[in-house]
Amino acid sequence: MNENKGTITFQGNPLTLVGTQPAVGDKAPAFRVQANDLSPYEFSPVSDKIRIIATAPSLDTAVCDTQTRKFNMEAANFGEGVEILTITMDLPFAQARWCGSAGVDRVVTLSDHLDASFGTAYGTLIKELRLLTRAVFVVDREGTIQHAQFVKEITEEPDYEAVLRCLKTLI
């Protein structure tokens, strides 16, 4: 398993990411996570929708809360042809509770807590914390990654404008 040491930090302290980090132009890896109702969610790279995949350490933190709410607001602007997924290590019950209290209804929250399938497939698993780092990927309908950002300092927000610019070129 690949390890990328020091590519991200938490409050300035370097951490290790486990897995293979895909880049723009790569085929998006398939993965299996859990939906909020505990059912399996199987991600297939090819879809009739463009997908934004955002990861975060935990929805119960201020930056992750802000990130997910912003993507939820943006989802209204793109219609049915775009799906926004937020993946964390939070338990599905916690994700459902958070979405209900935050009024998040357009972003699909998914949990990677069982086996870190997403985290290792996308190189977002933080070895020292067994959480996912903050990252955003845009996957086109053919399953190709068109945008990839690994946020260097996980206490900071992603570059929303870059994500939206990429998305607009694909719609």
How is the topology of this model organized?
Elements: E1 3-10, E2 13-18, E3 31-34, E4 40-43, E5 50-55, H1 62-75, E6 82-88, H2 92-102, E7 107-111, H3 117-121, E8 125-126, E9 131-132, E10 135-139, E11 145-150, H4 160-170
Parallel strand pairs: 5-6, 6-7
Antiparallel strand pairs: 1-2, 2-8, 3-4, 5-10, 8-9, 10-11
Written overview of the protein:
With 171 residues, this protein is of the alpha+beta class. The chain has a single domain, classed as 3-Layer(aba) Sandwich (Glutaredoxin). It has four helices and eleven strands, in the order E-E-E-E-E-H-E-H-E-H-E-E-E-E-H. The strands form three sheets. A five-stranded mixed β-sheet has the order 7-6-5-10-11. A four-stranded antiparallel β-sheet has the order 1-2-8-9. Helix 2 links the parallel strand 6 and strand 7 (107-111). The N and C termini lie far apart (35 Å).
